[in-house]
Design brief:
The chain contains 3 helices and 17 strands. It is mainly β. It has one domain. It is globular.
Length: about 290
Amino acid sequence: MVDINAAVMKRLVLSALAVGVLSCGLYMSGQLPFAEAAKVTHAATASTVDNNSDFRHIDNNAFGVGEKLTFDISYGFVHAGEAVMQIPDIKYVNGRKTFETFITANSYASFDWIFKVRDRYATYLDVDGIFPWRFEQHVREGSYSKDFDAFFDPQEKTAETSDGKKYTAPAYVHDIVSAFYFVRTMDLQRYHKGDKINLQNFYDDRTHPLTILVLGHQQITVDAGTFNCVVVEPLVVEGGLFKNEGSIRVWLTDDANHLPVKMSSKVIVGSIDAMLTKYEGVKGLLTAKVNVD
């Protein structure tokens, strides 16, 4: 029987949120200081400011309301939990339309006796500008629990946390859920093996940097099908949102949807994998899906 202790289960949770690691507030091309981040336009598509609005506009061909992605999380042959990413509804925040987005990671009931996980992350993501207005984190992992909220003001360039403290943050800074969706709107096909994308996100009391390394392209098969994918690896640094406890790789469909198909986190022995088992409400055609006889 495979022995999975609490530390390994912790990596399982991080793997379930691996794409969330991508969600870290993009500022493009890698060499700009944080102070310049607000000036950068979206390289993948037209990014303009509406004449009738003070906020940016980002073209989004990747996702919409009704999308729901379900993942099985396993360690070796042990099926330990399930992660779900979904956009169930539109909500208004500060008079703006937002996607109500959720990521949940739960251990299976049969696995709870080893390490019980009930994690939930939510972001209210501006429909037109693909930036967050509010972020919620509710972590329940074994005996550990944490609740964290952040409220963003892109015009004032601030982030206010649930304890009432307000911090300076770059305009359109992201949280760990919102920038996952933002990255999906990018034209990832324009990047080549070895290219790097520099990201930033706000968490706790500061903005954290993160670099995404493009590893290339690969065809993989999961329960949901066979897909052509672009593979990326978040280069996590000590002191960031996640500690550098092992590499994480993410496979995204090589089409406009950029669905996360697989997330893999190396551990001391083997790896923990989150594999797409079902997708619903996908916005565009999944041209990256391969018809296998």
